[in-house]
Structures are given as C-alpha cells and as structure tokens.
Structure prediction request, 273 residues.
Amino acid sequence: MPRDKTTGKASGKPAHQLLFSEALRQQKHSPVVDPLTPSHTNKAEDTQGASMDRILQETLVVGRKLEGMDNAMLALTAETRSMRLEIAGFQSQISGLDQRVTTVEAQAASWTNRDQELLHLRSRLTDLEDRSRRNNIRLLGILEGTEGTDIPSYLGDMLPKLTDSIFDPPLEFQRAHRLGPKRQDGKGRPRPIIACMLRHGQVCQLLQIAQTQGPLRLGTLEIRLSADFSRETAERRRVFLSLHPPSSPRREIRLIRTSQDVDHQERGVSDLL
Prediction:
C-alpha cells in the first residue's frame, strides 16, 4: 500500500488521491506568483526600462531648462518694457529739443539781420566820425612844453617855417590839444598834437606837402604830419600799408625808341604779313 510522506505510515487512500493531496500541499507552501508581473524578466525588458528611466531624467532636465528660459524671457520682457518707456521719454525730449532748436535758429536769423544792421550803423558812425575830423591834423614829434600855453598860435607860427611855405590867408586853428594825459616822469615819446583847422583847403595843402616831402624837420627834430582818422579807419589803413607799402615818388617816364627798335618792329610786322 502506498505510504503517507508526512507520517511515513501506510495510508488507506488510493495512490491518485495521495498525489493530488501532495500537489495541493506544495501549492499552499509555494509563494503566490502574479502572472502579470512575472518574477523573471528577460534582458530586453531590462534595457527598455533603463532607456525609459534615462528619457525621463532627460525630460526632467529639459523641463528645468525650459522653466529657467521662461523666467529669463519674463525678465527680458520686463526690461524691454522699461526700455520702451525710456525710449518714449527720449523721443519726447528730442521733440522738445527740436522745437527749441527751431526757436534758436529763428532767433539766430534775426540776430544775423541785427548784426548786419549794427555793422551798417557802425560803418555809418565811422564815416560820420571821419567826416567830423576832416579838418583835423595830427602832429608827431613836437617836444613837450615847446608849444607853451597857446597851442593854436604856436602852430600858426611854426607850420609855415616847418613846411617852408607861405599860406594866404594865414593858417587859423579852431582848437588844438595834446592827446592823452601828461606823463609824470617826462620820459618817452612826446604826446601827439591834434589840431582842428578853420579851412579844409589848408588841411589838404599841408597833407600834400607832408606826402611829397616826407618827414619834416625843424632843427634837429623830425616832425610827422598826418590826417586824423577814427580808430577803425586808422586800423584799416595800418593793415593796408603793411600789405602794400607806399611806393617811391613818381618820376616822369619817357618812351625812348631808337632806330634799331623801329627796324625790329617793322621786321616783325613784315614777317606776320
């Protein structure tokens, strides 16, 4: 008879029942296995799981990067908005400056016209001043104190001797004075004398004599006589004379033609014919 494995004794059950009971007992003691999650997987499934994990990790990394880029874009958007506001402020300032420049240009144009008017008025004033001085003469080189207290009488007696000329009628002066304050030390060049004559014709006569004779001498003194101009006219004359010094006295120039010159001229004319 078959024996029971647990007791080791002979059993009265048939053999197939004993085998079925043994199978049930083994099934109870064996662990429960879920058919959907088998305990043993192959290598392909392990590789696929590792790939999925890696993809998941990379996806997480990319997500973090995208989140950082999103924050950067938000910051860039805010900065761009502030820059647009600043540019709008600059544009308004530029518009204001443009209006101010337009106003300044208009004022500058008016000032240019005013400058031209002032230059014209200054030119007319200079001309009037020169006309008011047309009867004045300026004398340089007369020592201080030699004129005494009556300068017009002194000049009326001295100028005919200085120019070695006879004036008819005699020279007459309205007024005369030294130019500038008197020097305390008495050194340096003597101050010029400005004299206003009564007749303009005699002024022209004296200036013509001074121009033809050059510096006039009275004893050992060299006296210069010139017209009295305004400051602007005197400065222009000074610049002009520095560029174009006065030429030598005019001399009579004659054209002397010799017979040889005439022969050359006639020969040249015959060659042309």
